[in-house]
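Exercise (ungraded).
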Amino acid sequence: MSSTKDIELFDRYLHQQMNDQEIKEFESRLKNNDQLKEDFHLHRDAIKTIKSEKNKELKSFFQNIDNENKDRLVAERPTLPREDKIPKAKVFNLTKLLSSIAAALIVLVAATFLFRSANSTNYSDQYFSPYPNTIVKLERSSDESTELQDIMRMYQQRNYEAAIPKFKEYLQANPNDDVTLYLAIAQLANGDHEASINNLKRLTNIAQYEYKDAAYWYLALSYLEDGQKENAKNILSEIISRKQEFKKKETEEILKSI
Amino acid sequence: MSEEFDDFIELVKSNDRKRLGEFYILNKYKFIGWARKRFDVDEDTIVDVYQDAMVTLYQNIMDKKVTEFSVAPAAYLFGIGKNIMLKRNLKSNRVKLTDDISTEGTQALDYEIYDKIEDDHRSKLLKDALYKLKGNCREILRLFYYERNSIESIMLKMNYGSVQVVKTRKNQCMNKLKEIFAQSNDI
């Protein structure tokens, strides 16, 4: 493994914190030392992987925003033919229509954001959004899907009623705590609070659980939806004391309002 | 909802997902409208490019390759989207004739936002190794290498006692990642 000194050298080089002389010396060392070169390439690729995984998560976040709005749009938005394939006379109207729909969408989304902080006590309506899919890649063009991909598609389409039994079936054959989180979120969205609470409580108790932040947040929402305000308060306070960033603002908002 | 987003760089650095979502929605249909007129591609492809443009802009801000905008953030984003379209060799209809989107300042950015070869064995093993890290290792590595937080800032965020402890922990985590990779690579 790399020495501390080498790691810091690699970082300074990759973060462009070296002066010209240091760069020259470092590159010369790389050229003449195969072991160092190998270590450096692994270091660089590891950083690429870290960035790549975060970027995939960010892309899922954007896809999730689209999915959240898809159902509304399908009803409202006509199929738009390509501009150069439609009669000229219709171009203006369609463009206008597209603009109107886009404007309506923007207003709709803006309203959603703005009204989130309104004084309603329906916490799920205000604060629930499904956790983005970070466990399977959903290829648009792929002909073949795995069982989990099919289930996650249902989840993304918010077809929770169909997704829940499929999740359960899948988990029976392939126990997996990451997938259980998505089952619990689907159960919360579908109104089965007891089941979501049981699942999420178990997940928050796993020592090194990767999605612990999300598990805490959805557990708090489940308690709120189930009318268990004291338990919800305890979990929300736990979120604050854990210093978790995920849903921090929302947690503070809810704590102030209950 | 602010349409200006003058503070877009700060917004990205603070990882304000709510406002990032607003920015995404606000510009999405403008981008689709612009791209449909200029590229002979379906809407799914345009949306895919738009999302990748958002991720590219985000990562380059994190990497400090974008530190200020000479134009509005949305115009800069469209320039990145245009570059991605061209990099993917998507067929352009009229881009050269009616080119109103400048790519100035966006050419030198890093466009390799995902692993180059998704199915590459090395990438897969590294990814698996990353997810096998225990404790707060992944968080430290994310904060240092992706969000480019300073060691001091990580110390404050993660409640460590000293800068030296964070440095040591960060290096241990990186070595652990390489060790898990090496073990799986030997199998």
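Further reading is listed at the end of the chapter. For now, observe: Chain B has two domains: 8-87, 121-186. Chain B touches chain A through 58 residues (CB under 8 Å).
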